[in-house]
From TrEMBL, chains A, B, C:
Keywords: 2Fe-2S, Iron, Iron-sulfur, Metal-binding, Monooxygenase, Oxidoreductase
Signal peptide: none
Lineage, top ranks: Bacteria, Pseudomonadati, Pseudomonadota, Betaproteobacteria, Burkholderiales
Broad EC category: oxidoreductase
Protein name in UniProt: Vanillate O-demethylase monooxygenase subunit
Rieske domain sequence ranges: 7-107
Keyword Zinc-finger annotated: no
InterPro entries in the record: ARHD_Rieske_2Fe_2S (IPR015881), Cholesterol_7-desaturase (IPR050584), Rieske_2Fe-2S (IPR017941), Rieske_2Fe-2S_sf (IPR036922), VanA_C_cat (IPR044043)
EC number: 1.14.13.82
Molecular function GO labels: vanillate monooxygenase activity
PROSITE patterns: RIESKE, RING_HYDROXYL_ALPHA
SUPFAM superfamilies: Bet v1-like, ISP domain
Length: 346, 346, 346
């Protein structure tokens, strides 16, 4: 169960640079490519001739040419031409709304008529040259909501990521969860603590002492359908914490786009945006590598948690205070799902 | 759905040279071996004692000895002996009709009483010393009829095999499909074109110039249950094309025996028979290697097409003029299936 | 179908030395670890908080700490603590009876209230310093009863293990099967034969001539739920066979603990106990290596037999005299299963 009338990250421009990309999203097998004038296009990955996957074809002058018998598909799902054939009566395949923005290709797996570019939230860090971004993609066999839970409750850092970003004070510091319309914000502020290894590295990378007490914050923001941005950072203690001036802190935004593949698998686009040393490509690469290692620690846990839940479908899980970010996020998702459900009128 | 009262290629003599072979054909797990006097034998791969696969056993004096507890099985499916046992009351296992001919082992997965050697069509190239044959085996996860479609519509060469045997003129030249009883013939004759790389190589191998215009032909012959032989070749233009004298052409027969394993998987025996330089083993090996590479290009397409069709079972495919070879072949198959269906009388 | 109110081998102390072990036994996902004072503990592998597998956690002061969010689980399945939480109302998870004995961890997958240590049979070889033991673990995809059949009918040695312990005389010598309560004993005594390679090696290792006639015995003892101990050995002929004095023979006990994982897969703990040269670690290692090779020969046979039986669920297997050990063992198992079935009263 996922909202279908929503924007999801489908892939990055790299993925469709040389050839079409086949990827299943929200249960739909899609093909992504650049159509006329380079416009990103998403279609059903199914040639109307014999059912071949169009993603095994190639792009020619903005038309997708089926790799089996040469049918030329237009970006609206209607066949344009086929050698030796009149194609006017060919059945159309489904076209999905797709846009390119913020360095990603976004797709709307639901009703194309309802697709609305203005519903894609603004991502300041992706457009402002003062910011740099690096990230990657994991395929994980779990319900996308388990990953939302994971990201809205960072107490797991203490256990899953003990050697990098975890520290006991995360557990000990309560969080506050607020709901603003469809946005859910869970925040935690730890004061006068010592930074864990990842943040000591970030302090040094930022030209700051790493052996003095710091204030540390984590502000998780869920927005539907399943995106979580987390403001994270440390500031030398006594300078205002989250509000400290830039010269006293190292801060960034953890970026998580969670795209369901099926009911129990996801494409997990993870990354980090930072507004310091944005032109330092080496730093971007090293942060990306470190984050990739840390985030890969969640995979086994989430996949085995999913298997446990499938084996015990009727067992109720606990909803503790630390879970309130996930609980509230699921309520927003449920509201979106209800809005998409077929309406019954008396 | 496959005809069961028909001859299929099961394996080659090599496969049963040293030990029995276990292979599932048309949904039946079978064991193949040489029985008394070397006669090829096909039985259910199931020991009546404890259900062990007989294919893990060994052959001794023409008897198949179970590798678990030594039961000796006869070529009629009746137990011959077992250490310390009286075997007369042992239940028989199923025996299948099997014959060795044309360099292959053939099996009749249906009713053994109806098995008729005379129904195996004559293969001139396999018996005439003027011909040489080389081939191989692929396991592919698709319905056998998708491979029949593939072979009866060679426009796919232009796209799937673009760098070897494909060329634009295939698309541009219409085909003619004829049905003669149970045989379906789809033919295409291209005149005054340039040969693609594979055929230039064949011309050179045959001592002919490869840089002059040629006539090229493709004559696909389907015979049930699922065999496709394709006469292919090129002749220097102006010498009569298909009917040109041997010294002006390079020609061969593409041999395709498609044996269903299950409803959605096949054993695909492919090869090429040629009537030039039949004793040149090096040429046989090099053609076989080239053909193996070309034919492997179809695998991904067919397996993903199959998955697409399973995901959309109710969607209708197009039946274009280029598909008529496949369409007519499926009609023959349907007729055979209908003939095997249980009869209902009023 | 397996008895649940019974002791099964779950793992060895090595398996839980450094971290908890997750293992499915009799269909139950369990976590094994050492609780307070090192006592072995078995719980459901399911954190009551969010369903994470507890086996991904760690042990701290005898408490199992969930690796996801730090819940501390007690050895009775009740949550002891969790950072920032009152845990009194947390639902308990299931605890299983577990004991450590004879160098193994044993678990009782059924009703913990009925778990009775006295029901674990005495294993002399595991406690007496005159004996040495070496063994290993295989995972095999078959019903545990197929392995019981295998071990209670050693005629398969002639075929499956032809090059090591098999010999024609096994087939030719009838067995005797006796049932004593829940114990089934199948024995075979071969007289004045030549020893096969494995036993010639054992004779030499024991300082005895390997080129003279021997008496050989095999005494298979099944005890429920699914343990098979086999007394095996050879003695120089004419000294009393099984009853010969120690200086004339090489003997040992083949140890087989068969623990169901699911209905069609097992954890197979195999090994050998010997009462000669018990302190010779090199000999232990070499026997273990040889036995591992021999026992691995059964894997393919059992897994393919299982697949054959699943494909033909209604086909009846034969129950020959050589099968009587397995047949009688299955009767004992059926009796145990019936005793566990819900009682219906009139």
């Amino acid at each position: 169960m996922f909202p279908k009338n929503a924007w999801y990250v489908a892939c990055t421009p790299d993925d469709i640079q040389d050839k079409p990309l086949g990827r299943k999203i929200c249960g739909e097998s899609m093909v992504f490519y650049r159509g006329p004038e380079g416009k990103v296009t998403a279609l059903e990955d199914f040639c109307p001739h014999r059912g071949a996957p169009l993603s095994l074809g190639r792009v020619e002058d903005g038309k997708l040419v089926c790799g089996y018998h040469g049918l030329e598909m237009g970006c609206d799902g209607k066949t344009v031409a086929m050698p030796g054939q009149r194609v006017r009566g060919f059945p159309a395949i489904r076209a999905f709304a797709a846009i390119e923005r913020y360095g990603f290709i976004w797709v709307w797996p639901g009703d194309i008529a309802q697709a609305d570019e203005s519903k894609l939230h603004h991502l300041e860090w992706a457009e402002n040259p003062a910011w740099a971004y690096g990230g990657g993609l994991f395929h994980i066999n779990c319900d996308y909501r388990l990953m939302v839970d994971n990201l809205m409750d960072l107490t797991h850092e203490t256990y899953v990521h003990a050697s990098s970003i975890g520290q006991k004070e995360i557990d000990e510091t309560p969080t506050k969860t607020e709901v603003h319309g469809d946005e859910v914000v869970t925040s935690r502020h730890m004061e006068n603590i010592f930074a864990p290894p990842f943040w000591r590295m970030a302090l040094r990378g930022n030209g700051l002492a790493d052996d003095v007490p710091v204030d540390r914050w984590q502000i998780c923001r869920f927005t539907p359908p399943s995106h979580v941005m987390i403001e994270v950072g440390v500031a030398h203690a006594g300078h205002g914490g989250y509000d400290a001036p830039a010269e006293h802190k190292a801060a960034s935004i953890v970026v998580d786009f969670i795209t369901p593949e099926t009911e129990t698998s996801i494409w997990y686009f993870w990354g980090m945006a930072r507004n310091f040393k944005p032109d330092d490509a080496e730093l971007t690469a090293s942060i990306r590598e470190g984050q990739g290692k840390i985030f890969s620690e969640d995979l086994e846990m989430l996949e085995k948690q999913q298997r446990n839940l499938l084996a015990h479908p009727s067992r109720k899980l606990l909803m503790l205070n630390i879970d309130s970010g996930g609980v509230q996020s699921r309520k927003v998702i449920d509201r979106w799902l209800a809005a998409e459900a077929p309406q019954v009128t008396a």
